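seq:
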Amino acid sequence: MSKKVVLLAASCVLVATAARSDDRLAFLIPNLYGTAGLKVDSAALVTNPDGSLSTHSAHFNSAFQAEFTQFNISLASQLAAIPLPSPASGFTYSLDPGLGVLKRSTQSFGPIYTERADSIGKHKFSFGISYQRFVFDSIEGVDLGSVPAVFTHDNPAPGGRSDVVSTQNTIDITVDQAIALFTYGIVDRLDLSLAVPVTHVDMSVASSATIYRIGSCPGGIGTVPCSPKTHYFADPTAADGIGNHKIFSNAGTASGIGDLVVRLKGTAVKSGHTGLALGAEVRIPSGDEEKLLGSGAAAVQPFLDFSIGAGSVAPHVNAGYAFNGKSVLAGNVLTGEKKSLPNEFVWAAGLDWGVVERMTVALDVLGRRVIDSPRLQSQTFTGLDGKTTLPDIHFVKGSFNVINGSFGVKFNPTGKLLIDLNVLAKLNDAGLRAKVTPFFGVEYSF
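struct:
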């Protein structure tokens, strides 16, 4: 037992020393154009109520920036729902009442991302380390390499205030996650598990902005009437220094411990090779949400696992409901206001197949039903002139399903060592998504 304690303590030290933070990534887009938002240059003068003249304030607004909360919610929900590998050991045991000893309860080594009803066994211990990499490329089917957004003037009205700024935005988000997993069999049918993720996030944002002078130059530059100095980007390479295009960018990285997950699972019903387990999972918001290392909200997820372990093929079904707490990512990162992250119904169905004595194939479909969450939608913007149309985005609130397919293998090269290889692939476009996510893991049972 002392060896197990030493190994557990050493593993925790390694995880803790790997943690470090570099940047507040949740602020990248809110501050993309500066703390005052998107302002363009203007040499136009306006008459004040007292009759004096002052420079025109050329401030523009858009859902892309003003409602970036919705991107943060998508990011936070995805970080909270990144599938963790199964904390249960590939080697499960049950007590043989006739012999009075523990024996292997299943022929296969179990699933990778999902759960079976079997417990690890009384006083058994399992330890694992895994790595997975997410390269997010779309949100609600919109390519993150080309997110359109139109900015309109403060208090738009016919004339110069009908000018708009059209942007094409590129958002690059990569999440690398290493996870240490520990499972201990408290009694024969009750397991306690801990997942400690260490996360590294790379994020960059670039916005290519173009001014459309719908009101200040309705016929285009060189026509009459035309006042290009009403709204412009200072550009020394342009004629008279008056440009209509500018690129804004922001980037950062962050590394550190993510949200810890503690799970208690008990096999409630066991009849032959068929079992039903009940349990609860608690997410501890230990990851820094401002650095997008965690969700920023605690969560409780009761769940049930049903499985049949007869023969070499073992089907299983999982279901649970996640009650999420409040996070600044669902509120306003600039003011610190917190709001509740969307609750989720989670489910999975699949099978693990012991194709040969030392190898198991795991197949699963993983699903999440995200309840009442802001969703991005594409739309067409029409200017006040009734003729100018530009691609744009807006946000609506609704529920949606996130579905992934999982294919992996578990290989037992020697003793109680298992090597896990897996690929997670998206099966629909809802939410913030990565096309394919590779996974590698090792686990060892004592």
